[in-house]
Design goal:
This protein is of the alpha+beta class and about 280 residues long. It folds into 2 domains: about 20-80; about 100-280, Cyclophilin-like (Cyclophilin, Beta Barrel), CATH 2.40.100. It is about 35% helix and about 20% strand. The chain has 5 helices and 8 strands; from the N terminus they run ααββαββββαβαβ. It has an 8-stranded antiparallel β-sheet with strand order 3-4-6-5-7-2-1-8. The longest helix is centred in the first third of the chain and has 67 residues, at about 25-95. The radius of gyration is 36 Å and the shape is globular.
């Protein structure tokens, strides 16, 4: 900063005429004045140069990364908005609500009668706003869970359901028509727990499809998840394992890429339909 100094007051007994008459009349005084002006100019220029150098250095060190981070954040947010808009358009084309958080109205049921046959092998094709994946169902591991899943899928219960909980590097959860985490088909299922794995980190291998529950022994309902990473693989064997993904893991990874540590996704993808296919064993 260049400080401004007030000029000294005139000495007592010295008139203003002295300065007017002496100005430029003495060559030595004139040269000294010029030299003084040059020194002051150089001093001012030097201070300004230093100040500008520090300012530019501060911008280079502090400003650019902040702007870069802001720009990346803005770009990421813009990409998420664009992805969400595309997902919403795909969902609306099949009759889903425009807003993903809209609670879907579904009837409440009693526990279903047997709808699957022991002599058939079952698969499910799941069409989503992010793509398609296929599940090989495993009634030998969890017969009541598979029976319930096929029952609800055939009724269109999962259509327009959101992936409302997506844990990064963990799992993609869906099956709750309310999107609140507390939705239920009206009945509960007993836990059909898999055997405890010798390696806790691979209790549910990537691609496993399991039924979520409330933590109670008979706390299963319609909410199910697909394991997409190590956080899901190392879950305790408390969840009914009723299938595994046989194709389309890229779709599930795309869903998971927009997840978070808390489970709240930046982009909410939805199920458009679940179609069950069966064939002889």
């Amino acid at each position: 900063m260049v400080m401004q100094v007030e000029p000294p007051s005139l000495q007592e007994g010295v008139g203003q005429d002295f300065f007017q008459e002496s100005d430029g009349s003495d060559p030595w005084s004139a040269l000294e004045d010029q030299a003084g002006r040059r020194r002051r100019l150089l001093e001012v220029t030097g201070v300004v140069w230093i100040a500008m150098t520090l300012l530019l250095a501060g911008v280079a060190i502090v400003g650019f990364p902040h702007r870069s981070r802001d720009s990346r954040t803005a770009a990421s947010q813009a990409a998420a908005v664009e992805m969400q808009n595309r997902a919403n358009l795909r969902a609306m084309k099949v009759g889903c609500p425009a807003i993903p958080s809209t609670r879907l109205r579904r009837p409440q049921f009693v526990a279903p009668i047997q709808v699957i046959s022991a002599g058939l092998r079952y698969e499910a094709t799941v069409l989503t706003t992010a793509g398609t994946f296929r599940i090989a169902l495993a009634p030998s591991l969890a017969p009541r869970t598979v029976n319930s899943f096929v029952f609800l899928a055939d009724l269109g219960y999962f259509n327009c359901n959101t992936f409302d909980r997506v844990v990064s590097g963990g799992y993609d959860l869906t099956g709750d028509p309310t999107g609140t985490g507390i939705g239920s088909p009206g009945y509960t299922l007993p836990a059909e727990k898999p055997w405890r794995s010798a390696d806790p980190k691979s209790q549910y291998p990537i691609g496993s499809v399991a039924l979520a529950n409330t933590g109670l022994l008979d706390g299963g309902g319609s909410q199910w998840f697909v394991v997409t990473g190590p956080k899901g693989s190392s879950l305790p064997n408390s969840y009914s394992l009723f299938g595994h993904v046989i194709s389309g893991m890229a779709t599930l990874r795309l869903v998971n890429r927009e997840g978070s540590e808390s489970g709240k996704p930046a982009v909410t993808q939805r199920i458009l339909s679940v179609t069950i296919q069966s064939r002889p064993v």
